[in-house]
Amino acid sequence: MEIGVRNLGKHYGEVVALRDIRLDIASGELLALLGPSGSGKTTLLRAIAGLETINQGSIHFGDVDATHLSVQDRRVGFVFQHYALFKHMSVLDNITFGLRMRKLSRRPPKNQIKARGMELLELVQLKGLEQRYPQQLSGGQRQRVALARALAIEPRVLLLDEPFGALDAKVRRELRAWLRQLHDEIGYTTIFVTHDENEAHELADRVVTMNEGVIEQVDKVAA
Amino acid sequence: MASRYRNALVEPAPVRWLLIGVTLLFLGIFLLLPLFVVFTQALASGMPTFFAALHDADTLASIRLTLLTAAVAVPLNTLFGVAAAWAITKFEFRGKNLLTTLIDLPFSVSPVIAGMVFVLLFGSHGWLGGWLAEHDIKIVFALPGIVLATTFVTFPFVARELIPLMQAQGTEEEQAALTLGANGWRTFWHVTMPNIRWGLLYGVLLCNARAMGEFGAVSVVSGHVRGLTNTMPLQVEMLYNDPGQYSAAFAVASLLALLGFVTLALKHFLEWWHGDELAALRGK
What we know:
The structure holds two protein chains of two kinds. By secondary structure, chain A is α/β, with parallel strands linked by helices. Chain A has seven helices and ten strands. The longest helix of chain B has 34 residues. Classes of the chains: A alpha/beta, B mainly alpha. At the A-B interface, helix 2 and strand 6 of A face helix 9, helix 10 and helix 14 of B.
């Protein structure tokens, strides 16, 4: 689904966090938001998800004006920097959470939910770990559980906040290649935030560089 | 001979023994000895006297009153405590610091003052006394007053237990639940609640122990009517001051202490019972 950000502005009191952001993201595109900390990249990502209220402008998902939609109704797959997995739930329960929380009228039957969860586990290559708890997983595995959990709701857009920030260099490289491959396979419109230039250029179709709340440049990455 | 190498993280033996010794001595004198005295005094005149003391109609009434009071005050404070902790830790709003300070008020104010506040408000010469008398509602020197005073005094336990816990946990899991489509209520029930349940249980048990043991505030609002408005702590004091009822006082006191033990034992049992889950929650 294509995502449109029009004249978006956000401030905390006197401090401007985002100023007049305009950005169009094509359906199926993999876009990087690059910038130093405090540049507004995470705020923009969270604003698209509806986790931050904005003061100006609008956000569009395809033909839908999502500006005033609640977080729940936006149906975005958000992967948090520290994953925010539910500690007290098994891996499978984490992944199927979104399906289990649906209104009764739209909730699939239990066996279908489980089947979908196992499918996703296979997709993120964690088959056999469904009964583990998040504490029993490595960082890279947790990351993939978080991704599977976000994918379970069939999101309009996938938003990743510093997806590799908490991982060591080796796992980082592996996961990067794997994520690119997965993206090409499933084709969700994806936006990820990073402060690593190499990572942005290696992984993304387009790199949006932000600084002090504005977009400084947009680079198309040669395939 | 591994023992030749001293572990840098362990104190030398004499220091260890001294620290352990001091701790044990302190625990012995201030915790175990008093309990020992209570139970030996309770049983000093033999088991028949002990049970006869507990079978006294006024004492039975006091036990019933204490249990009833706790049965009302503890659920109320559980509800208020969770609501307050939730509001304070998961939302940003004006006056948050003031609210946090107010929650501590019952701890910082003497329970006697707390009791007097209710007498001033609801007593026959109090602000609302006239109106209450007209409508034939009795609060002070009756069950509602005792419940109110107990609820006031024990209010902070649940909230105090939960606030640091919920602050440490942050709101990321809740945000994740929202992005996955869960509404506020289901987020609370499926995400927040499981993460806080042990802290909540601990707060509830402490609250309960204190609710059953509260003396000062209840003493002011109760009016000390035997068999009617005497809770167990008040009954203990009354019996103790009665020259012929010395051992009966200790019998009731031992029962009160026992209720406290049961509370703690219950906590340990639940922790043991749910050990696997607890282990899964530890780590991060």
